[in-house]
Amino acid sequence: MTQGAESFTHSGRRADDTVLTRFERWVRDTPGAQAVAAGTDSLTYGQLDSRANQLSHHLLNSGLPERSVLAVACAPRAELLVVLLAILKAGAAYAVIDIENPRTGQRQLAAARPFALLADAADRARLDDGGDLQVICLGAHADEAGGLPTDPPERVVRGDAAAVLFTGGADRRAVPIGHGRLLAAHEGWARVTGPVPEDRHLIAAAPDLTGFAAGWTRALCEGAALVLPEGPRWTAEALRRAVDAERVTVLHADPGTATQLLLRDREAALSKTLRRPDEGLRSLRMVTVTGDRLYLDEQAALLARLRPGARLLNVYGPTEAVGIGARFELPQLAGPLDGTEELSLIGAPFPGCQLDLRDGEIHLTVPGGGEPVPTGDLGALRPDGLLEFRGRIRDRLTVDGKPLDPHPVESAIRSHAAVGGAVLAEVKGAGTGVNARPALIAFLAPPADNDSRPPASDLPDGAELRRHLAGRLPGAMMPSAVFRLPRIPRDKAGREQRSALPLPPGPAEDGPTGGGSKYARSSSGPNVSGWAGLVFFVVLGLLLLGGVAMLLTAMIWPGSTDLSGVPNPYATLFFFLYLAESWAFAAGVLFLFIGRSRMLRHGRRGPRITTAAHLAIVYLLAAWWPQDNLYRLAAKQDWPQQAALVYTFNIPLMIAAGIVAVYASRPPLSAFDVNPEPAPARNAASGPAG
Fold it and tell me: Comparing C-alpha atoms, which of 64, 32, 62, 71 is closest to residue 48?
């Protein structure tokens, strides 16, 4: 038995054990130990249990039926753990709902079909879809908590389900998780990782994802502490500060989050330059990475940033397996391997799980047993007994009427020294006229620790990439062009988000043996045939709207453009100035309607800053027309009017310019800073691969 594994049965094991009884044993044994570290909202085991008991009484007093499902809409703070434990104490099952994306949250509610929603007033309003779902207000409970008992409720009838977890696909399929499976998954994880009560866990996943919705047991069933963000979610800066200040020992993250913290962070880059482990992360004894494929070279780079002796687990954890399924650590290899940049290993199953292949698809027997679940992921068994990840069925492309799995092609592309990430996509409508055809485009990103300026400038062009792949791939699998990206976009669960790849600027014009595609030469250069029509309509629109603006000038501000008293050539210069202002206003109106979608193609910087920058550009263009007309009609000594004009136009122009500067200088956000819609899943299990 691994070191520390005795801790999860330190008080003996009973046949009716659950994660709740495990937690309650720690409450009895160490009530003063810290359970939740969340700034001023930190709680001990005794405090957390008392508050959960009070809420469980409140739920039962609200007429909660037996074996109910309760949806929870709450940010990752101490109150969320109170609610989850209270629901289990009341004999119900919990389903954590996404509150950052209301549309996703509404679909999750429809999939879970809960008896009621637990939320505060603000989150209730965000999720309100006009239905008749009962809402239990968390704020109202807090007001009456003083009158509720702090002892656990009398024995209640528990249903089979302890939690309802959600797959990451567009269908947001709900997966009921029984008490037995939840505990079995926890025990399998504990046997591998050897938890101790001194651990301090940090889960970077959003609350509605499996990593958090089921992963909180890793801390609270082991007498350890769970570190939560002080804000609504983890950001890159807050994560770094928390790991250092809270002395986090076990970090659970997706590939994007782990890469940001261990490789891209400023302190991580400094540590790499000095060729030593990151001093700010020396408290970490273990990092578990889950959510998507992790290549061996990436895993080795992440591990190198930790202190000697620390562990880094690549975890393959579909939703049905409650976040565990298989795991791989570099010491599992019998010896050094060549081509680590092309290999992603799932490894060996967790205790209580089994993996087998059927027609190349991975089937997983979940913790606690049962029929094997098809995961929709492809794999191959290596001679050393380890399972290798080979891609996903839902990512499969159709080229010339034949299926093509992109993972082997993407892995071969990663063998190029300058490529850190690669995603193969089929772009429809390449070519023109009757020769229009789909084209295979390779979207490339540099390694995480690449510091080239501008970003992605070291990536190969199409011709160079094809020379590198010559002899490694057949012609039908060869990318016809490349598109350079600072990094591959990921959804909030850490998966590569193929649906968020930017639309290329024009069709690829050469095949695998052609002489230089437009993509290969430049990832942002215009395509004449594709842009000619757009340019024509934009110019026509500018002329029409500019003319309308000139007419409106005469109607709204009569006399503002009167040049009868101005001698030439100045009258001509001023006339063209007035015309340019009208055209700028017209351009602003056009950009208001067509600009934001084009800004999103230049890399995700977050929906809020993109919207702010879009409106700022519109204002920078459109404001000159009314501003100059009002200035020309204002008396020079009318100081109140002059001040009003300055603060109405000039100050906002400065603010708008600042917003655009922030947008232009801000890099695309990491996985935990964005919240896009995940790509739709084709398979049944749709669980994340390690």
Answer: 32
Q: Kindly compute the dihedral angle of the four CA atoms of residues 571, 572, 578, 581, in this order, to the nearest 10 degrees.
A: -140
User: Per the structure block, which two tokens stand in for 541?
Assistant: 């629109």
Q: How many residues does the chain have?
A: 690
Measured CA to CA, the distance from residue 452 to residue 460 in angstroms comes to: 13
Rounded distance between C-alpha atoms, residue 224 and residue 218, angstroms? 8
Phi, psi of 248 (to 5 degrees): -65, 135
111 phi, psi to nearest 5 deg: -75, -40
Ramachandran assignment for 39, one of left (phi > 0), alpha (psi -120 to 50 degrees), beta (any other): left
For residue 653, the model assigns a pLDDT of 82
* Alpha carbon separation from 325 to 252, 313, 365, 562 (Å, rounded): 15, 12, 8, 77
Q: Where does residue 472 rank: exposed (0-12), middle (13-18), buried (19+ CB within 10 A)?
A: middle
What's the N-to-C CA distance of the chain in angstroms?
25
The answer to which of 18-22, 233-237, 514-518, 624-628 has the lowest mean pLDDT is 514-518
Torsion of CA 475, 476, 482, 488, to 10 degrees: -130
In tens, the pLDDT along 365-389 reads 999 888 899 999 999 999 989 999 9
Q: What does 78-141 look like in DSSP terms, one character per residue?
A: HHHHHHHHHHHHTT-EEEE--SSSHHHHHHHHHHH--SEEEE-HHHHHHH--S---EEEEHHHH
User: What's the CA gap between 448 and 257, in Å, rounded?
Assistant: 11
Q: Are 59 and 70 in contact (CB under 8 A)?
A: yes
The pLDDT, as a whole number, for residue 434 is 44
| C-alpha span between 680 and 670 (Å, rounded) | 20
- pTM given for the model: 0.72
